[in-house]
Design goal:
alpha/beta, 2-enoyl-CoA Hydratase, Chain A, domain 1, six-stranded mixed beta sheet, globular
Length: 285
């Protein structure tokens, strides 16, 4: 769902269109890379939508040509070192800590914790995806209940290049079959929208010029349903996924994720295995 950047420098825009709240990531110059400021702005927007009795459905979109190229690992506004008022958990402030005390606390809050919090928003959420949906972008799309993808959308998790077994919100073997998930991770290759539809990761694939319209049509149709019925249905499916191991599986992989960071810190230039944004681009990620 592309939109021109407004005069505001806020990283997230919020708009209510009838019963639909549209939350738009608004850092198009950086392909909507997610810094902490954006993460907490998203949290405020989702909380606002949850608290508004007039809102029945939430649409998550990205301004510009891309949904989100992932977590911010190289823009001038990268702010991973800064403290923010924590909302998702009770881990301590990471900004005055070192090593795992810092990274584990921050990622428990900003990545895994926030995604779990948003997944439980008691209103249907639809991701409206165009262009890149990469690494941390996957996490945002995957916490949504439905995904509408433009034909030009592509999905990738290239962080195995960093020696890390996938992003922090490790939903891979639940949003696609396990063997497909392994290939997706082992190669780091892009999965186009049509393939993502074939494996069941997205609900609909539409022409790029129709993405906004088709997403809003689906949101409006869902909004005709009673609020409590939608909330209970969402909870029922989420509980079924958790009984299939989603929640505990993520806990176990989050530990492996941080083992990889610790290994990199001892054997590589940094916890990302020396793979900054420029090296990731050069590697085709």
């Amino acid at each position: 769902m592309s939109a021109a950047r407004t005069a505001s420098t806020a990283p997230v825009r919020y708009e209510r269109l009838g019963p639909v709240a549209v939350v738009t990531m608004d850092r198009p110059d950086y392909r909507n890379a997610q810094n902490s400021a954006m993460t907490y702005a998203l949290d405020r927007a989702f909380y606002r939508a949850a608290d508004d009795d007039e809102v029945k459905v939430v649409v998550l979109a990205g301004a510009g040509r891309h949904f989100s190229a992932g977590h911010d690992i190289g823009t001038p506004e990268r702010d991973a070192h800064l403290p923010f008022d924590r909302r998702a958990g009770l881990w301590w402030d990471h900004s005055d800590k070192q090593g795992a005390e810092s990274r584990f606390a921050r990622e428990s809050e900003v990545y895994l914790g926030m995604c779990r919090r948003w997944r439980e928003l008691p209103k249907p959420m639809i991701a409206s995806v165009q262009g890149a949906c990469v690494a941390g972008g996957l996490m945002l799309a995957w916490v949504c209940d439905l995904i509408v993808a433009a034909e030009d959308a592509f999905f990738a998790d290239p962080v195995v290049r960093m020696g890390i077994p996938g992003v922090e919100y490790f939903a891979h073997p639940w949003v696609m079959p396990p063997r497909i998930a392994k290939e997706f991770l082992y190669t780091g290759d892009r999965m186009d929208a049509r393939r993502a539809y074939e494996v069941g990761m997205v609900n609909r694939v539409v022409p790029p010029g129709e993405l906004t319209e088709r997403t809003m049509e689906l949101a409006a149709r869902i909004a005709e349903m009673p609020r409590m019925g939608l909330a209970l249905t969402k909870r029922a499916v989420n509980q079924a996924e958790d009984l299939q191991g989603l929640h505990t599986g993520m806990d176990s992989v989050f530990g492996l994720h941080h083992l990889a960071h610790a290994h990199n810190a001892e054997t590589a230039p940094d916890p990302l295995g020396g793979m900054d944004i420029h090296r990731m681009k050069a590697a085709g990620a």
